[in-house]
Every structure is written in structure tokens, then in C-alpha cells.
């Protein structure tokens, strides 16, 4: 396997008395999808916030391409090529597709003081990019993002990250609010990003989604890594068992039958 | 057409046209549509409009500024005391007044982003601090809370020139609106303003320096308020700590009537301009009808209520289908 792109060593994160993460170590490799599994409150969101520069770790270190790194704000992580797509806060609903796509990296034309946002270019590129991933219902770059479906918005956000050359793509529950068809759309897009060489952290509590695209898996329970394994090493039942901490397995199995 | 109905300024433009026509009919022959009548409502709208444009941008970014009123008074007193009491050159006092206005904005901005407190409260407090401070310091220095000004002819022309009844402030309003429109709809900074008000967390994640965006906008409302303070001091040949107090709520009211969402993230400068014009038309139109001007308040209150309701509807429509 290649060298890890980013590595956490013994990372802990406390919010006052709450221990959100304790001694977490994990590595993410280019061209691989690491699935981070865990129940609500397990610390998944905190972990990605540490990875993407929103929170400094309380203890432990972050290695980027083998070198120790500290992010004082998300902007710094972004500069290195770390792109985070949050579950529901990735886009600005009352802003156009073009402006959303280029937010924070606006293309301009003309000279100062008449330098202006190049909306023609922005709209064209944004449409091209989401079309490449099969979103054809959106025909106008001026359209407000709030008019798009949840899946279309995820595609827009992931497409934007890839367009700007993201090397580490962090996706927080990108499929959990989606219908079956849209979820498979987003999963396919992740495999395309992987093929392009990106390292991907995929957070989910849907074991099926995880098993369908994941290369490496880590299960987080109460802020600690409870298990770590690679594709094919464990069955879906074992994974579900791990995620649930061994309890309520019968109920889960029943639920699983319902999905089939 | 359906696209047009979803524009945030559509309500303000329609309300303006209807109200204008209403007063044209109600005041026929009284001179409301004459050059002087038109200059009358434009004058009134212009001074408010110079503040309302930056306040609109600030509200789109999701913040309030209620300290603008006392900043107008403070700036007028700086110019008055500086030129009359200390005999200092007018240009340097104008500069000082604008810098002081920017300073109030900077303080507001820093206080809001550092403490995370609602800007509504922070700037309301600032409003009292600034007017109290202006009165206190003026009394200490000259034992007055108002004073006449002494300015040169070029300054008089630039800030208070008059053609028949029309004040030069109307041109300043147009210039401020043009700059505001450019910044919001044409410059990259405009995207940052919308994103900051629309979803600050996502904006921050995308690399938008949301704190700096807010601070810059607070500075711009402070400078604009000070600019109006200078205009009023030159125009009325006096400074007074209480100038501008009417703007504290008038500015946010015309901004909301102009289609800016109270929660931020949506709105246009064109809307704010029409909201302000509407305010001017109502305030002077009532006068031409011969009715008691007390009705202005009722009219504005009703309009504000309708506007807030209409804005939520327009937002809902905007997020519907394509
Ligand atoms: N900013 C914060 N301040 C205080 N506690 C927090 C904060 N963020 C998360 N936590 C706590 O840390 C724990 C892990 O939360 P989180 O990372 O959101 O879990 P998950 O995303 O797996 O559901 C929870 O107990 C949560 O209440
Ligand atoms: Mg979470």
C-alpha cells in the first residue's frame, strides 16, 4: 500500500468534561476509501472536524504526507487539498449554482476597480462538472441551489471539491438523507473520485453503503476506535454487530431483512 | 415571468409603484408630481438611503446595526466643534468624522464576532454609548450638545449644493447605491456576503473569512452614517448629538421592505433603493394630501408587516421548482 496521505496518531479531543475522542490513530491513503462507522454521538463529526481544521486536537498529532501539521483554521486545511462536504451544510440554498460552486475561489475578469465575478465562466463550469456526474435536470447556472434535490446538492459539493483538486475528500453522511437511486449516484461518484487518486473518508452509519465502496473500515465507539479492518475481512453481520457494540443484534438483523 | 416573481426586490418595486400612483391620484393638483414635490421625497429618501444601502448589505450578511443613528449625530458634532470651537480646517474634521464613524463600526464588528452576542443587542448598546459619549464630551469641551459649523464654500457645495429644491445628497445616494450594487452583485465579495448570511458554517468551510466580511460591513455602515452626519451638519449649518436618531429603525425597516430577509442571505440593493424611495414617497405624499402626518407611522408599520410576510413567501417561491 502507498504512503498515507494523512495520519492521526493518538488524537484526543475533549470539550470540557466530554471526551469526544480518545487516543484515535488512523491513516488515509490516496486512491482508497476509508469508511468511518459508528453510532450517533460516537465522535465521527468531531473526528472529521479535527481532520479538516475546525478543531485543534487536545492531544496527539496529525501527519500530512508524513510531516507533523497543525491547522489553525479550516482555510489552512483547504489549502493543502482537504475538502469537507458536510451532511446538510455544504451549500448555500439561496445562492446560485455558479456562485456556490466557486464560493471562496471566485473567478474574476476585468481590471481593478472593475474586476468582477465572472458569472458566465462560473455557471458554465459548474454545469459542465455536475453534468459529468449525470445531473442533467439543472439547466441554468443562475438557478438557486435550494431548488435542487439533496442528492444533486451532494453531487455539486463533491464535484466542486474534485474540481479544485481535493486530495483528501471528507464526506459526512453524504448518503443518509438520500433515496436509494440518489444514494447509488453519490456512491458511484465516490468511486470515480477514488479512481482519480483522491483519498476519501466516508462517514456513514449505513453498513450496506459502506461495504459497497469501502476499502478500509474503522468503527468508532464512545470516541475510541473499536475495530479496524479491510475489505473482505468481515461480513456485513459482523460489521453491524461491531457498530451496535454487540447488542440488539436480532433487531438489526430484522431491520436488514426489511432492506433486502 | 415566474423567475421575475421570485426576485427579492419585486415586492418593493410593486409597492413603490402602487403607492406612488396612489398619492398621484390622491394629491392631484397639489404639486406632488411637480419637480419640487419630486425633489422633496428624493431629498428625504437620499439621506436615509446613503445609510440604508450598507445596512442592507450588513443585514444580508446576517447582522444588524442600530448604532447608525447616534453615529450620524456624533459625526455632525465632530465637524461642528472642530471647525467652530477649535477653528480646525474643515477637510481634516470631515476626515476625522468619517474615521470616527468607521471606528464605531470596527468596534461593533469586533464585539460581535469576538463575543458571538447578537448584533441587535451589541449595536443597540453602542447606539446609547455613542450618543451619550457625544453629549458628554461636547459638554465637557464646550458645554453644549449642539453647535453651528464653519465650513468653506467647496465643502458647502460638495455636501449641500442645491438645484431648485433638489439636494446634492440625491447624487450621493445614487453613487452609494451604484457602489453597493456593484459590490453585492458583481464582485466576489458579494458572494461572500450572501454566503455569510446564508450559512456561515458552510461559508467558513469553503474558505470565506466570515468574521472579516462582517467587520468590513460594520465599518461601511459606520462610515456611511458619519457621511450623512457631515451632510446634515453642512446643510443645516449646525451639528447636534441627536441628529439621525430616526434612522435607528428607519434604516432596517426600509431594508426589510426592500426584500432583505431578516435572517440574512437574501436581498438586493435595487430592492433596498426602492424600499427607501417608498419611505420618501409615503412621508412626503401624506403631507401633500393634507392629512395629518401622524398617518405616516401607521402606513410604515403596516407596510413592514406586509413586507416581512411577503419576503418569507418570496423566499419559499424562490426555493420551489425551477
Ligand atoms: N462543540 C462541542 N462542544 C461540546 N461537546 C461536543 C461538541 N461537539 C461534539 N460534542 C460532543 O462530543 C460527542 C461526539 O459527538 P459527534 O462527534 O458529533 O458524534 P457523531 O458525529 O458520531 O454523532 C457527543 O457527546 C457530543 O455531544
Ligand atoms: Mg455527526
Automatic annotation (TrEMBL), chain A:
InterPro entries: AAA+_ATPase (IPR003593), ABC_carbohydrate_import_ATPase (IPR050107), ABC_transporter-like_ATP-bd (IPR003439), ABC_transporter-like_CS (IPR017871), P-loop_NTPase (IPR027417). One of its GO terms (molecular function) is ATP binding. Residues 6-247 form the ABC transporter domain. Keywords: ATP-binding, Nucleotide-binding. This is ATP-binding cassette domain-containing protein. It comes from Psychromarinibacter sediminicola.
From TrEMBL, chain B:
GO terms for molecular function: transmembrane transporter activity. It is found in: Cell membrane. The keyword Cell inner membrane applies. Keywords: Cell inner membrane, Cell membrane, Membrane, Sugar transport, Transmembrane, Transmembrane helix, Transport. GO terms for cellular component: plasma membrane. Its main location: membrane. It is a multi-pass membrane protein. The keyword Zinc does not apply. InterPro entries: ABC_transp_permease. The chain crosses the membrane at residues 12-33, 39-59, 66-87, 93-113, 120-142, 166-184, 217-235, 241-262, 269-289, 295-314. It holds the Pfam family BPD_transp_2. Part of the binding-protein-dependent transport system for D-xylose. Probably responsible for the translocation of the substrate across the membrane. PANTHER family: ABC TRANSPORTER PERMEASE PROTEIN YPHD-RELATED-RELATED, XYLOSE TRANSPORT SYSTEM PERMEASE PROTEIN XYLH. This is Xylose transport system permease protein XylH. It comes from Psychromarinibacter sediminicola.
